[in-house]
Amino acid sequence: MKRLAFSYHPDYLLHTPPFEHPESPERLIAVTEHMKSTGLLEKMIPVPVDYPDDEDILTTHDREYLNKVESACRRGDMTLDAEDTYLNRHSYNIALLSAGGAIAGAKAVAEGTADRAFCAIRPPGHHAGRNVGMGFCIINNVAVAARYLQRRHGVGKALIVDWDVHHGNGTQDILFEDPSVFFFSIHEHPTFLYPGTGRRWETGKGPGEGTTLNAPMAPGAGDDEYRIVFEQQLTPAVERFKPEIILVSAGFDAHRDDPLADIQLSDEGFRMMTKRVVELANAYCGGKVVSLLEGGYEISSLTSCLEIHVRELLEG
Amino acid sequence: MFVARRMQKNTVTLAPDASLADAQEKMRDYNIRQIPVTSADGKLIGILSDRDIRASVLPAGFIPGFSVEEAQKFLHNTPVEKVMTRKVATATLTDTLEDAIVLLRDFRVNALPVLDAEGKVIGIITRTNVLEAFIDVLGVGEVSSRLEVVVPDKPGTLAQLVTIISSFHVNITSVLASSHVEEGKRANFFRLNTLNLAPIKKAIVEAGFEILDPSQFTL
């Protein structure tokens, strides 16, 4: 069994929606309770989560944007831009703490106190761009973690697998010209689903040309279609890029029971994706995987798929 | 939407006595594939496309004695007026984009020079410019979610839908309405600036409308 770090902070529950909203604290309550009741919590290594240093956030976001979010929270604004990305008085801090959870997981793996990490964090991050929050996301947790690994732990090349059903437009924008971080996203086709980006010809720019790979999936696609993409697109990309660590933007909203999209993955689809990432990490990165929670809004499939995900990270 | 809003101004033009070599150089420099040919007073007398040039020059090396040097000599010595197309499909400043789309299709051309009242070239509108307009209207690339609703073909249904959507405080970034495969029905397409379509879809269905599954989208 692998040593799996688990990062979580009870204050994640303080980011609460001012109106009915799918990205609610109940998601994480359900996740932690499920981890307890299945005995998986005991099998993981809890790691301390703290607020990140400023420099570790400024790799990814501009100071002006952070100030804007902070004062919006202080003022009592209910949303950041559109109504998707709600705020309360704690939201700025908790968004930082969410990135802190990603950093904590990355740190444990980089320092060798764990082989892999799962970060049960919220709010999610992959829609947040350098200067803009959207789609429930305020700070881009996965980009912060990748840059943290590079700056603090001498990691050269990192690869991100984003299987949230929505395209990780924020992560893509932040890393579009960066040749040292490969961004792979598989998501429902942008003609049908938010945010409307992630077309197959978006492949990076300048020095980063060729280090972005998008796999838009037709509505109704399921386990078989996803398996083919993992085999035929992700696997050769990893073989060519040779990352030193794999980060996963693990959303669970591509499940057939999730109400926000039209992709039809079963629980087994999430097992297949986790297994394949673990196999690739074992082959190319000494098994190092840091997985971060993104979306997933239907509690029952969220918890059952996360259980599978964690088991595969522990055992694969 | 008028042609004037979408056309390229500062149009590159050629004099009738310019050489084909000059024309090729301009096409390369400005990354364009056709150039209006104008008289000294700016009036349109023809249009020259890269295909006109290609059709006029046999590929060097295919014919014995016709070398690359010969071809270059031909390009430098031939004025564009010998090769250009004289019958040109054009647009005017008062034409709309709809006019341009139909003209581009009917004449099977890639571009329409835009003329003012005196027949002078003041712009050019290409298939690419029209596609740009289409991309904008569809809201492609804007942060948004897409929704297709089938409604009965009677007045007031679009207003009903917009009322439902606005009750969720969500911006509409694009709307299209078109006929539907089933008679007596129409399809309305929206792009909405939200990730969370689920409650909006629910409200629309509860109001008695039909939401199309994305795999059934007709447009």
Overall pLDDT score of chain A: 97
CATH architecture classification name of chain A: 3-Layer(aba) Sandwich
The CATH topology of the largest domain in chain B is what? Answer: CBS-domain
What Rg of chain B is obtained from the alpha carbons, in whole angstroms? 25 Å
Question: What's the order of the H and E elements of chain B?
Answer: HHEEHHEHEEHEHEEHE
Write down the domain tally of chain A: 1
What is the CATH C level class of chain A, in words? Answer: Alpha Beta
Proportion of residues in extended strands of chain B: 15-25%
The CATH homologous superfamily name of the largest domain in chain B equals CBS-domain
Secondary structure: helix percent of chain B:
25-40%
Alpha carbon gyration radius of chain A: 17 Å
Q: Can you summarize the main beta sheet of chain A?
A: 8 strands, parallel
What descriptive keywords fit this protein?
heterodimer; A: 316 residues; alpha/beta; Arginase, Chain A; B: 219 residues; alpha+beta; CBS-domain; Alpha-Beta Plaits; 4-stranded antiparallel β-sheet; 3-stranded mixed β-sheet; 33% helix; elongated
